[in-house]
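note to self: dont lose this again. the chain is below, predicted strucutre after it. 136 aa total, dont forget to put it in the shared folder this time
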Amino acid sequence: MKSYLEKYAEVLRYLVVGGLTTVVSLVIFYGCVFTVLDGRNAVQLQIANIISWIGAVAFAYVTNRVFVFKSTEDKVLREICSFVLSRVVTLLTDMGTMFLLATILRLDHNLSKLFSMVLVMVGNYVISKLFVFKKK
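---
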């Protein structure tokens, strides 16, 4: 069991941090939708999505750098830019998924958001591992 945990420690840390990032994103998203924005309105739904994305990306960068990938990169600004750019790619994926599921197919926006977040979480790990926090 110990060797299994050591072998997959990074993935396990990512899952924990990804779960926490998901919670941050959901709290912000639903906070927006349940207070000031209407989730049935396509534009307001996307605004809530973008606001939750900004909060989640800020949280995710710090936790991924420190806890998951344990980055020692001294060019932090470049790393931040790569991280944010990679998250823009998955934001577009998120927005496209939400538009397709909630707006075009008229599925429940709550379930659409949960499905979209799973896609985004997998994409974020792959991009972070291969491009942002790659080991030298």
